[in-house]
Each structure stands twice: as structure tokens, then as C-alpha cells.
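Possible regression after last week's pipeline update?

I re-ran a chain I had predicted before the update to compare outputs. Posting the input and the new output here so someone can diff against the archived version. Not blocking, just want to make sure nothing changed silently.
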Amino acid sequence: MERQSTYTATATIDEHGILTSWSEGAERLLGYDSPAVVGRPATALLAADGSTARRIVAGRERWNGTVPLRHRDGRLLELGVLAHRRTSAAGVTDWLVVSAVTARPQPPRGEPLEEWTFLQSPFPLAIFDADLRLVRANRRMEHALALPEAAMRGLRLPHIAPGAASEEADRSMRRALDSGRPQEARARLGPQFGRTAVLSPLKDAGGRVRAVCLSTEVPATDSAGRQPPPGESGSRVGSATDQARAAQELGEVTVPRLADVMAVDLLDSPRDANEDPAPGPGPVILRRAALRAVPDGTGPAYGTGVGEAIVCPVDSPPAQCLAAGRPLLYDTTDPVVGEWAAADPGAAWLRASEARALLAVPLLVQGSTLGVALFGRRPGRGAFGPEELRLAQEFTAKAAAGIRQARSYTRARTTTMALQHSLLPHTLPEQAALEIATRYLPAATRAGVGGDWFDVIPLSGARVALVVGDVVGHGIRASATMGRLRTAVRTLADVDLPADELLTHLDDLVLRLAADEGSADPAAETAGGIGTTCLYAVYDPVSRRCTLARAGHPPPAVVTPDGAVRFLDVPAGPPLGLGGLPFETIETDLPEGSLLVLYTNGLFEAREHDIDEALDMMFAALGRPAKSLDALCDHVLTALLSHRPDDDIALLVARTRVLHEDRVAAWELRNDPTDVSRARHLVHDQLTAWDLEEAGFTTELMVSELVTNAMRYGRPPIQLRLIHRDATLICEVYDSSGTTPHMRRARIFDEGGRGLLLVAQLADRWGTRHDRVGKTVWAEQSLTEP
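New output (post-update):
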């Protein structure tokens, strides 16, 4: 097959949905020439209902996603497109729609450290190839443009962010590629970018220009491009939840206003005021948190980078400042300071900037010392005056408060995530009824991790229970409540309660938890998890039936083997903790190979679109062919997530399997003691047919005891069933009595009381499950262990 070259397909659509232009790339992509489509409704090219497209773009300025289009020859093409709403100076509105068609593979990733540097850089970075098409974008660039890298890959900058600034940057990139020298574009690409974009050519080992890197600073001005008033310039210092970001904000506010260059170095452990302030006989160990300088085009080597450890001698300015606990001023021509700056790698930034005046300010908050901020001025600006000293202390105090708060937040979040991780299943249990894949994404909000959970619970008779729940709130309280409810669900599932009864018991538990926590803390919100939602489903691979009930939880989706996607109409039920309201169950047949999709509502809250659009996108992702269930989970998350979720997301996808008739044998028995012998013969013959003669003695003994008990204490009809599942053999005896058998200790002359004890000794697991009418006593044994 001929390899397709890289090109961009573009089209414009007026506000009435009529195509007004059609590029050569669009003609190559879909096979229609311009006269065939211009003037026609754009929805005529869709391979889906046009109302969906109208809902997607309604009220939006930009949209990106996958669109099913019909080629001229009838083929269905699913294309990733980016659409921009534009309004001209004359007030005419239209849409620019672009799609990159590229045969290039993704560029190879570098060494881990290089990848971390690129992805985690605090500045927006993007790499464009020799055709000026984007090939890489870091996380800051994705955030600034509000687009994932996948949506931008293969597009030129004017197509990613249309406007005069992008056109100028595009021309500057071409000059950088042609000349091999860095260029500047003095136009802001958007409110999330600085005033100047730097375009740096990237050369291979032979000196040939292969690509260009676009970089720009995060602006220190407001979104309108104005410098904030002096009283407000430090208002955002200390507002970040990340201590590195809090330190960087200090640099953004003070450079160049107070200094030409600055650094923030932090202690790994804060030093309290009641500790000895002296640094002691040894050096002080700090860690660099921020480094910032006024751009001068020289590109100085600043030495120690952010995150690296710094060893400060006792007589160095940082160590002296920490020991004194107050700001200290230095002249870098002083021999002591000069020797430190010349010898210490941690001071390379000071040497490279040629600063003459140095101001060291301790980071103090609530009696604790967190580290030190160092400000340098070049000779042209003179020394630091009283007003600069006051502002430096003010901004540094705000930064210290932000760093302390960020550390507390990070500590609390780490604790909560560790608790949440310990309470969620680490591995899925072995079972043959379902093939399962799961995903769990914790919230990225300041409120912390929530209480979403999922579980897979093997039940008797080769059945499997699937659980997904969502505890209201965030933080340790929600995680702890989640752990208690998950344990309760597993306990109730072990006694084989029907789905509606299980939710009723769980509802009572939430009420008791709320009462306990409310009495201990009357002001506690959502005490005990009131308002928690839960979905409980049980799948039987023998009958292929699935029984479901839900408590205020979103309904599950089902994908049938023919690719049709639908929701199961499970009665909603009230959220847990309201009390007194019933839960209802439904039963549905699931063909072999069907997909059952359970999720929490965070999946639909992770994107700024209406629920109809979210559902359409999820259904489209579920209907796409996927190599595996893990790939399908990734398709769903990619389609619905435009940024880190603000709420936890739990996703569970299960593909049904079936135990066919050749693995199940069932018989009706008469309520006659002589039929016990017949039951043993039936079991013997079946095990012989399954080539399991070695298990015959044990199985016949257990069946004999279970059938005898059913005839003696139960009521007809009596049924015997054997299930052979991989290396497991299950014996089940049903009777219509609701009496539960109990194992008891038999006395010396008792005739009964030993049957169930014998079954318990021979079986790996045994138990009783109750049906709407009657009960089933079951025993499970392994065929691989003696």
C-alpha cells in the first residue's frame, strides 16, 4: 500500500452549517473535489446523525474530538478534528475545521531524565518539525492551549491557535529553521503565554537543523496584559498547592521588579524556632526549589537545577542567613562571598549573572524556618534599598506561607492516597466468568482524593459480583468510609444476599455510621457517607443472566457482540443513607462476549460539555474495536478527559464468558432415601465422562451428605448440580425449604451433626445461598491440590 504523505485537511463552515471552502488536503482525504461539497450542508459528510454535531458545537468557541465521516467511495473514516469558531471584523461568524493526516510515527522519546525535563518544565514548550508541524508538546503547553498533544500533533501553529500572533510565530519558526539561529516573536499567543515567544532551532549531531522548539514564559501580568499595581503585585504569591510552584511564583513577582536574578533553596525538614538556630559544625543541606533570571539572550549556565541538593558551607550567605533568622545584605566583591560564589556549584547562578549585590531573606512562617530566598542585582541597578528590603520580606513571607500550606496539602494528599490505595483491590481475584479491566484516577483538586471504589467478588456457583461505588466528599474521611463500605459489601456478598437485600443492609449501615459520627461531631458534613451511591451486579456464566440493583448510581452500559451500545434500565433507587426506601433488581440475559461497563459519575464531570455530548462520546468509544479491554478503558478515558479530573473516576469493563452445557450437569432427585445411592452413581458417571475419576471418592462422599440433609430436613423438589470450571469442581444441592443448615459439634452418641463437619473438612469452601424460594447448599473443591 502506498504510504500517505503528511498534509492538513481544512474546511470552513458558515454559521448556518454550509461548507464555504474546501482545501486540497480535504479533497485528498475524503475524495470530494471543491465544487462537489462547497455550498452543501457539512452534515451531509457525517456518517452519523447531524444533530449530534450541532449539540457538540453549540455555544462553544473551539472543539476537538473524533468525527465519523463518509469517504466518497463509501468508506467510514473516524478522524480527529480541531474546530475554531471565528468572528471577522465585519461580524461574520464561521468555523475553521482542520485535521492532520500524517504517516510519520511519533518521534522517539529520549532518556527518562530528558523526558521528565521536557514534560515537567514550568514553561510551555512545543517542538515543530521541518514542515512546521507540531510533534511534541509538554504539559504546560497543553494546559496553556487547553488541548491535548494528540489533538495538535501534525498541525501548524496557525491551525492550532488561529490569529496574527500565531502567524508571526510561524514565520519566525521558518526563519529559525532557515538560518539556524534563535528567533523571537514579540506577540502573545494567548492569555496563558508571555509577551515573547522564543523559537530555538534543534540540530542533530552533524549540525543540521531538524526541528524548532517554541518556548514562552508564563506571564507575570494579568490576563489583559497589564502590570498589576504595586499593592497587588504579590497577591498570587503563596497561592499554589505545589511547593515548587509556590517558590516559582516568588520569582515571577520579584524578577525583574526587585532583582535581576533570584533563587529559592529549601530545607528538607523545616527548622522550628525552639530548635538551635545555629547551623552547627557541618554544612547546611538545602534543595533548590526555584531559579529565575531576567532573559538577556546570553543563555548563562546556571549550574545546580531545580530539585537538586545544595551543600552550603557554614560561612556561606545562605547558612549565615538561616543562622541569623533575618535578612542579610552582601556585596559579591567581598572575598568571603566571592570565594563561595566561585567554588560552590549551588552559587553558579550568581556567578553567571555577574550580580554585585546579594540579598538573603529567610523563609519564615509561624515560628518555622523553611529555607532561604536569594536575590541578586547586576551593577547597573545598584544596591538594595529599604523599600526593596521591605518588599522582599513581604513577598518572601507570603511565599513561605504558601510553601508551608503546599507541604501540608501534599502530606495530607499523600496520606489520603496511600489509604485509598491500600483499601482498593491490588489484584483482581481469579475467576472464569468474566474478563475484567479496571482504571482508577484520583481527583486532582485541592479538596483531595475522594471515596470512589470498585470490587470484583467471586461467589458460589461460579458466579461473580461486580461493585462500583462513590462516597460523597473528599479526603481521609471519605477514604475511610469507602473502606468500611467495601468491607461491608464483601461480607454481605459472602453470604449470597440478593442484590436488593444487600443494598438494603448497606443502607442501614450508612445510617448507623452517620449516627455514630454525628454524635461525635455534630458539625460533620455527610457524616458516615450519607448520599453515597452504589451499583451491585451478579453475573452467572451458567445461565448467562446478570442481576443488578443500584442505589442512586449511574446505570451501567452494555455492548453486545454486534457492537450495539445501550444502557441497562436498572431502577435508580435512592442513594444510601436515606433509609426506608426500597431497592429493585432487574435480570437480563447477556450473550457470550458482551461487555458490561460500570463507572462513577466523575467520568462525565471531567470535561466542560453537556451530558448528552459526554454520553455520545462514551458510546462512540465503547463501540470502537479495541485490541483488549485495557485498550478499551484507555479509549473511554481519552474520549472523555480533557484535563485531570476534578472528581475521582472508577471504571470497570467486563467481558462475559459462558460455562457451556458440557461443563454443567443437573438432575432432579426424588425425596426418597434410596435416591442417595442413585445420586452417587450419577456423580460417578459424570466425573468419568469429565475424566475426573480421582475426585470421585471425595465428591461422592460430599454429595451423599448434602443430598441426605436435603431429604431429611428440606422439602422437595430436590436438585443436584455439578459444575466443572477449570481446576474447580462445585457440588450444589437445592431444596425448596428456607431452613439454613448449621454445623454443630456432635456428642458421642448423637446420630447427626457430623455431615456438614465432614463436608467442611473435604471442601475448600462451602456455604448456603437463598433464592426467592428455597436454598442451595454448595461445596467447592480444587482439582489440583491433594
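Follow-up from reviewer: compared with the archived run. The chain has 20 helices and 31 strands. Marking as no regression found.
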